[in-house]
Structure formats: C-alpha cells, structure tokens
Specification:
Helices cover 39% and strands 23% of the residues. By secondary structure, the protein is an alpha/beta fold. The strands form 3 sheets. Strands 2-1-5-6-10-9 form a 6-stranded mixed beta sheet, sandwiched between helices. Strands 3-4 form a two-stranded parallel sheet. The chain has a two-stranded parallel sheet with strand order 7-8. Helix 1 packs parallel to helix 2. The radius of gyration is 16 Å and the shape is globular. The termini are far apart. The mean pLDDT is 97. The structure holds S-adenosylmethionine (SAM). The site of S-adenosylmethionine (SAM) has 22 residues, from loops.
Length: 206
C-alpha cells in the first residue's frame, strides 16, 4: 500500500538543505533525524549521502508509515533502516548503544516551532547525552533574532502557530542558543536560507 505523504515545503527546501548538509555531515556513520515527518528529506539525503546511514524517526504513526512507504518506493529498503518511534520529549530516547557509538550527527528540521519549548529543551538535553565531543546538531526552520520577527511572513506564521496552539511559536535564536550552551553545544555556523529560514549548526564542545 502506498502510504506516502507529500509536503510541498519539504520538496522545496530539500535541495538547499542538502547543500548545507554536504558541508557539515560526517563522512560516514549514523545520522539521526528527529521529527522526520513525511520522510521525503530522509529519502533525499540517504540517496545523496551514500556513506552514511540516515535513521529517521517521528512521534506520529502516520508519518512513520509514510517514511516506510517512501523507503519502499525509493528502492532504499536494505540500505535505510525503518523509522523509529521517538517522542523528542522522552528521556532517554530508545536507541541502542551500538547505534549511539557511531552516531555523529542529529538533524531536526522544522519541528521546534511546532512543539512546546520543552521539546527544544529535550532535544538538546538528549542530544547532549548521546553525542560525543565534536558531533553536531543541525536545526533548520524560521527563527526570531533578539526577540524580533525577521520578516512579515514569519510574523504572520508565528501568529498562526500560536492560534493553533498557545505553546507553539517561532523560537528566538538567542533563547535556543542559550539552551544549546547549557547542554554543552557551541554554535558552529548560522546560515540564511530561502524563505526567511535559517540553518543553525551546533557542535558538542566537550
Ligand atoms: C512541520 S513537520 C516537519 C517534518 C519534517 N521534518 C519536514 O521538514 O518535512 C513537524 C514534525 O514534528 C513532529 N513532532 C511534533 N512533536 C514531536 C515530538 N514531541 N517528538 C517527535 N516529533 C514530533 C510531527 O509529527 C511532524 O512530523
């Protein structure tokens, strides 16, 4: 059965994100993606970066079904593992020691504004526990800078998110950086991306 979901924004941003990943991803080992959604990013990145293993995950069973379906339809079964059921707010995440031993990179795209701030805190706390020094955590999405919206469209999006759920909303980069620092991550790079988004790469400092 074809249970693939199609997200228009994901199709639009996968290429610019892949360009950034090509600079910051490790040459090999496991990458863990938190909140993989439809799985379209995971499939695209697994096809491009063939020496790494892209491990997808999501809290939502419909998303996990979509990811499995994308893996099948793309002929990646056997290369790419099945999605994991991970709620970013769980502690610890259900990962084996064997997996964590070769885990070098965690990616989280367009999740932190569609979840409470506690999800961002858990993302950094859990990542800080499992990643070794020098490993990276990649965030992509819209951000505020020093409390201000960076565009009118982001301001409207923020209002829309808050109307849907009072605990959601575009995060302030400075607040996210503070949470990162509390969990021993330092900012490695901040890159402006299309449609007023940012790629933010953090590195585990110790
Ligand atoms: C806007 S979608 C982004 C999906 C994908 N990363 C992309 O960019 O296409 C947000 C995703 O966050 C996931 N999510 C929300 N809360 C979560 C949580 N507590 N743990 C894990 N995933 C969560 C949702 O299920 C959804 O797939």
């Amino acid at each position: 059965m074809d249970e693939r979901l199609f997200f228009a924004a994901t199709q639009r941003n996968k290429e610019p994100i892949a360009e950034v990943l090509s600079i910051f991803l490790p040459k090999e080992g496991n990458v863990l993606e938190i909140a993989s959604g439809s799985g379209e990013h995971g499939i695209a990145f697994q096809e491009i970066f063939q020496n790494i293993i892209w491990q997808t995950s999501d809290i939502d069973p419909l998303c996990r079904k979509s990811i499995s379906s994308w893996i099948n339809q793309s002929g990646l079964r056997g290369k790419m593992p099945e999605p994991l059921e991970i709620d970013v707010q769980e502690n610890p995440w259900p990962l084996t020691n064997e997996f964590c031993n070769t885990l070098r990179f965690i990616a989280c795209i367009n999740m932190i504004h569609i979840s409470p701030i506690s999800a961002t805190r858990s993302l950094f706390a859990n990542s800080g526990e499992i990643l070794k020094k020098g490993s990276r955590l990649f965030l992509y999405g819209p951000f505020k800078r020093e409390g201000s919206d960076t565009s009118i469209s982001n301001k409207k999006f923020d209002q829309l998110l808050k109307a849907q759920n009072e605990h959601w909303g575009i995060r302030d980069l400075e607040e996210v950086t503070e949470i990162a620092n509390e969990n021993s991550f330092k900012t490695l790079e901040i890159l402006e991306m299309p449609a007023n988004n940012l790629s933010v790469i953090f590195q585990k400092a110790f």
